[in-house]
Amino acid sequence: MKKILFILALAILLPSILAINISVEKQSSNEVMIVDVGEAAIINLKVTNVGEADKLLFYTFFGQGIEPAQRIDINQGEIKNVQLKVSPRQDSALRGFSTFEYFIQALDKTQISKKLTINLIDLKEAFEIDSQEINPESNTIKVYISNKAGIDFKDLKVSFNSVFFKSDQKFSLGPDEKKVFEINLNKEDFNTLVAGFYTLKTEIEYKEVTAELESQIKFVEKDLLQSTKKDYGFIVKTQIIEKTNEGNKITSSTTTIKKNILSRLFTTFNPEPSNVERQGFDVYYTWNYQVNPGETAKIKIKTNWILPFIILILIIAILVIVRKYSEKDLILRKRISFVHAKGGEFALKVTIMVKARRYLERINIIDRLPPLVKIYEKFLHEKPSRVDEHKKRIEWSFKKLEEGERRVLSYIVYSKVGVLGKFALPATTAIYEKEGKIRESNSNKAYFVSEQVGKGRLKD
User: Fold this and answer.
1) Burial, 110: exposed, middle or buried (Cβ in 10 Å; 0-12, 13-18, 19+)?
2) How many CB atoms lie within 10 A of CB 281?
3) What are phi and psi of 328, to 5 degrees?
4) pLDDT at 434 over 50
């Protein structure tokens, strides 16, 4: 009979003993999957085996699945760094941020599921192209290419093409890396062009996939004007652009600056620009004017970050307060209200609202009274476990409180001596146990402002 019971108990307990017991922590961030290239997203995980030694299998039904496809050995108590590769389906039309589910399976077929979010893009979205301005005296131009994806691009073939120059480059570009190419200019190629914005076409070839991008090159006007620019300030940033006509004839001038959609909200101009043009997330401001000989045209641009800085500080303060409030396991709210007595005695009803935000054990709530008051013997809600008239102390004890459970504790205090002015009760203290650790929580202090009250009896 004992043997049969042992076999039954073993049959019941064995699945829970052998069940997968691991914790998974994601180490990487901003994972990117380039769909048209078939470039996999790389996810780094820290896996801790809390249970017995096991062989783990990672799999998903998203994209073309997860590599490695074979099981990974992990000993009891071992912490292992696991790198997963999730490859896209090249015929998929899905783009943008996508959340999918993946599974971790133990050798006994028990498993857990987790979720991952990655950004699905095409090759052209992985790069940003920018360049210097060009003026008629320029001999070279710097062109910038930035890797916006967390992927290491090997053997890129890039062609830059504009009315000013053509250049072919071959290089590698690491995650978040920016490369600068200084390209020689031939002035004869653009000596008939007028000032303005011109298109720079960039063709990028990677793993037999070609992407085309377009950006702008600003061809600035210099002519006979001497230009100076001053920048100063941090929170209140000021930029002054001056153009002085050192020639002997009236000269037309065009000045263009760029602001993003955020900074433009806090920017003022003196004088106001002649033209405002929005292109994507950038706003271009242009001033057109005539400068007489010996005169100086001055543009003052001021960006004031004081208001957004104050807003940022307020947001941080609110987040700190919310976080501090959310960390409390037990919330105590205390309030007092006047009670009418038959003979006019000074009497107050004290109410303590108790709310458990998590499961707690061995809760002891302690409230202390000022020396001039006495406790009315009739309690309205939870009866206290201990009342010490001498020490002016009331205690309530609970074996446990479930998550979200509320209790209302209330009692009445009175005084045969009238009280005038502000009457204060100290904060209520709760001592409790959570996950084997002793912790403490306090309520607010309660106040009551009253006029002189005569003697009498409390109402029942």
Assistant:
1) middle
2) 8
3) -70, 130
4) yes
Q: Quick: pLDDT tens for 194-222.
A: 778 889 999 999 888 888 999 999 887 66
pLDDT at 44 over 50: yes
Which of 94, 112, 93, 95 lies closest to 103, judged by CA?
112
| Antiparallel, parallel or unpaired: β 178-184 and 140-147 | antiparallel
Q: Indicate the burial class of 164 (C-beta count within 10 angstroms; 0-12, 13-18, 19 or more).
A: buried
C-alpha distances in angstroms, 34 versus 179, 374, 375? 21, 75, 73
Tally of CB atoms within 10 A around 388: 13
Instruction: Say whether 405 sits in a helix, a strand or coil.
Output: coil
User: What's the distance, Cα to Cα, between the start and end of the chain in Å?
Assistant: 65
pLDDT tens digits, 235-279 = 788 888 887 766 445 677 788 888 887 777 778 888 888 888 888
3-state class (DSSP) for residue 218? strand
Instruction: Tell me if 154 sits within 8 A of 162, measured CB to CB.
Output: no
DSSP state for residue 42 in the 8-state scheme: E
Map residue 270 onto helix, strand or coil: strand
Most confident stretch, 39-43, 339-343, 439-443: 439-443
Note the maximum CA span of the chain.
117
Beta bridge partners of 22: 49
Task: Determine contact, residues 229/243, Cβ cutoff 8 Å.
Answer: no
Tokens of 208: 């037999």
63-77, 157-171, 232-246, 302-316: range with lowest mean pLDDT: 232-246
Domains, in order of start, for the chain: 2-121 (2.60.40.10), 124-219 (2.60.40.10), 225-307 (no CATH), 330-450 (2.60.40.1530)
| Among 346, 319, 353, CA closest to 444 | 353
CA dist., res. 345 & res. 418, Å (int): 7
Q: Which amino acid is at 63?
A: G
Question: Is the model's pLDDT at 367 over the cut of 80?
Answer: yes
What's the token pair of residue 48? 């801790």
Q: CB–CB of 118/98 below 8 Å? A: yes
Smallest CA-to-CA distance from 381 within 403, 349, 359 is with 349
Residue 124 DSSP label: G
Is 329 within 8 Å of 283 (Cβ atoms)? no
Half-sphere exposure of 185 (CA within 13 A, CB side): 22
- Tokens representing 165 are 């120059």
